[in-house]
Amino acid sequence: PAPRHLFSDAAEVGAVRSALLAWYDSCKRELPWRALAANEPDVDRRAYAVWVSEVMLQQTQVATVIDYYNRWMQKWPTLQALAAASLEEVNELWAGLGYYSRGKRLQEAARKVVSELAGRMPRTAEELQKLLPGVGRYTAGAIASISYGQATGVVDGNVIRVLCRLRGIGADSSSPAVLDRLWDMANVLVDRSRPGDFNQALMELGATVCVPKAPLCEECPVKQHCHARRRRLAWGRPRCRSAYGPTATSALVFAGAGGCPLCPPATEPWDSSLGVTNFPRKAAKKQPRVARAATCVLERGGRRGAPRYLIVQRPSSGLLAGLWEFPSLPLAPGLQEEKQREMLAGHLQAWGGRPVAAGGLRYVGEVIHIFSHIHQTYVVYSLPVDEDVTLDAALSPSRWVTEEEFHASAVSTAMKKV
């Protein structure tokens, strides 16, 4: 890579560290996991508090996480308490937070620490990633730097954005080669005396100032080091080996002199209307898979008390593993409604042990829910049933619940929409 892409100047590295830490000390958000980590003298309990927050924050906004985090730490204040909990309890608390396998893997790792590591957390990023299931490179780096003071960098979505803009990196930021370079940069840049604070500062900058759209460049503490900002001010795309000077024009194009692997490709010109948000660049996002399912809300009772609804438990692996839902079955593309009803009736017959007339299913409507990789449509039906309907114990776990019990159960947001 060209020198301008790298943090190779010691004076610049020191200036970036100092500016970011000073900004973080005065501008950081007050968040519950930061307060816990700051006030917890036991390093393993501090690591647990950080770990839970980092797992919850994956793919989820801070505002959403705060309430879940507070309830989680109140219910399971220690790693040992989490290890003793049931997966059902974990799923119930996690319900609505999304990406449900995160909670399951977190508990599996907690149980491993208790049963195989004598309750002692691994102390380095390398050991954390190696020994704990579900702990990847980023989470391991965050725990090790914030809780144990290891001088190791972190790279998440916010850090990718900040580094790509600071160093003018226009190659596909999701490619393994570019990610490796970004990790190298993060490890060079991390402050040796305050690694945890520095990593949080870098992430905080990306979350509050160097945001994806409409970044607050004039409020950035390291704006004088930002190559993307220099390019915006120069209104041009200088060649890789040249400086960002006032003579640069929008006609200048560079595909990376000498085959620079971090420069933008010549086929993707600089868009002056986007400014610094030209960076980072990613490969085109894969379109989510389209899927449909028939779902039936079976209702019984109501005369002598609240109506009850049948929910069944999903398999222990795969999408929404272990969560509860109304009886559902996937539908093939292009299936006619009459055939949908017949298939759903046959599916329901297995649960109740008696024939179900397809004509008795009342069509309610359709619910669309977007998972990260699936555009899911639920075709919703309802069916009243007699009080004496019994369930086949040989099938997946199932139970009748009131509406209040339903919302307190480990059900997905999609089923709440249904």
Automatic annotation (TrEMBL):
Catalytic activity, per the record?
Hydrolyzes free adenine bases from 7,8-dihydro-8-oxoguanine:adenine mismatched double-stranded DNA, leaving an apurinic site
Record-linked InterPro entries: DNA_glycosylase, Endonuclease-III-like_CS2, Endonuclease3_FeS-loop_motif, HhH-GPD_domain, HhH_base_excis_C, HhH_motif, MIG/MutY, MutY_C
Which keywords does UniProt give here? 4Fe-4S, DNA damage, DNA repair, Glycosidase, Hydrolase, Iron, Iron-sulfur, Metal-binding, Mitochondrion, Nucleus
Co-factor note (free text): Binds 1 [4Fe-4S] cluster.
The alphabetized list of GO BP terms reads: base-excision repair; mismatch repair
Question: What SUPFAM superfamilies does the record point to?
Answer: DNA-glycosylase (SSF48150), Nudix (SSF55811)
Give the EC number(s) listed in the UniProt record: 3.2.2.31
Q: Give residue ranges for domain HhH-GPD.
A: 56-208
> What would be one Gene Ontology cellular-component term for the protein?
mitochondrion
Q: According to its UniProt record, where is this protein located? A: Mitochondrion; Nucleus
EC class of this enzyme?
hydrolase
**Family, per entry:** Belongs to the Nth/MutY family.
Function text: Adenine glycosylase active on G-A mispairs. Involved in oxidative DNA damage repair. Initiates repair of A*oxoG to C*G by removing the inappropriately paired adenine base from the DNA backbone. Possesses both adenine and 2-OH-A DNA glycosylase activities.
Task: From the Swiss-Prot or TrEMBL record, give the protein name.
Answer: Adenine DNA glycosylase
Give the originating organism. Nothoprocta ornata
State the encoding gene: Mutyh
